[in-house]
Amino acid sequence: PKGRYDPNEPLNLNVGVSSPLLSRFDLILVLRDTNNASWDKLVSSYILSGGSQGNIPTGNIGSSSSSLWSHDKMRAYFRYIRRLQPTLSQEANLVLTRFYQLQRSLSNRDKSRTTIRLLESLVRLSQGHARLMLRSTVTFQDA
Q: What residues does the MCM C-terminal AAA(+) ATPase domain cover (predicted)?
């Protein structure tokens, strides 16, 4: 980041990366470090205790709940779904087409972000969601 993040400014101005370069990414996640004394205390006490107190700041991660998958089970699942190559359904195709056309028609659009790469990103993200849900076809919900 170029100093303090300003949510009223475009991403490329906040991070100092040009729009054409940003358009090459399917997703851009902005993680903001906000001033929150209680969160800072919780995180620092967790880290300084070696993470052994059992109260991980992110919630249920690391709990002994039987509903959570083991790391081995997660790895096996991701290895399995990685092989899937979901195809677009007609409904998904229509959703992606209409969204792309809408983005292209907006007067205040960021022209460097609404290229054919946007449509390609939407397809990849939809296929990724379908894979995660163990589907061989990209549905309306995935799109």
A: 1-47
